[in-house]
């Protein structure tokens, strides 16, 4: 059984840094030291610097995924983003959600003069200076967001993500209570919990699963690289959970655990058939209409085009799309709604990129512009994302509204 003990490494250290919790676990003669940090505490960054300077470790693991690590070491990486590829691959909504998360955290940083994740930057810089390998042990943020989406009931998804985007509009200041929670917990959980009706919906994908994922990654690092002592720097909200998982040997096959937690769960089977069922019902409605009279059939088709295309065009217009993009939304939505393989947002976003290609300056200002509502509408990158979201939403609403209208006319109501 591994030995678990909690200790402070340097009795002479400043009282502030002594308060940072540390747990060391011994496994088969090798060690994993987990430092629990407060993502908004300067003391945590100082403690990281102090520990790496002891030369006790032969590797440093950080609570970062590849994309978050890239954002830290290469802040200008967003300028190299292929926006068309993002839209084509269906990642526009996830990129927008990530930007909204970053915007909320940036607003918090500006209000309190703090920098979330400063200890991770120190860990990367000091580990590189000491020629220590750096292991990225957190799950990719996009995968985590998708698993959050799958873990909550479908009727709560809109309120959660609309609340997240509403945080950009809000001028309300972040409370001291929220800051204290962030000091004790996880940066993603603390951010998302502001917009969740039930925080239990978030616990599994944001905390429990990531405890398992990061524990499995640490065990893999020990086995594959033969490290003798790894320093793992994670948020305080993860430390005890990870220590228990490692200490109790609940992760028997780390590679399998990582693969399972990287999988996006399938949605309810009936939901995958729903778009096709709706298309079939609409086409049946048209057929019935034309069988009764050409005039009725044509009227139903016109209702479909005007309502579906009109609402998609309104969504694009709200996002301040190019006039030709708005026209594209009107023409494309009635057609794409009859083909669930292609979304209206994909067509309108592609049209906007073609008509008004984002400039280098849009990408370079992306981080700062994403912190305000005005910035989202003025920056061409975020505007494209908003066009994708709002025209898709307009088309989706239009599908149901037009569908009810069609069957209302057929039934004579």
Description:
By secondary structure, the chain is an alpha/beta fold. The protein folds into 2 domains: 3-261, no CATH class; 269-411, no CATH class. Helices cover 66% and strands 8% of the residues. The protein is built from 21 helices and 6 strands. Strands 1-2-3-6-4-5 form a 6-stranded mixed beta sheet, sandwiched between helices. A hairpin with a 2-residue loop joins strand 2 and strand 3 (30-37). The chain is elongated. Residues 1-18 have low confidence and may be disordered.
Detail the topology: elements first, then pairings:
Layout: E1 3-6, H1 15-18, E2 22-27, E3 30-37, H2 42-53, E4 59-62, H3 66-73, H4 83-88, H5 92-112, H6 118-129, E5 134-136, H7 141-151, H8 154-169, H9 176-184, H10 187-192, H11 200-225, E6 229-235, H12 236-247, H13 254-261, H14 269-292, H15 294-318, H16 323-336, H17 344-355, H18 360-364, H19 366-369, H20 373-378, H21 380-411
Parallel strand pairs: 3-6, 4-5, 4-6
Antiparallel strand pairs: 1-2, 2-3
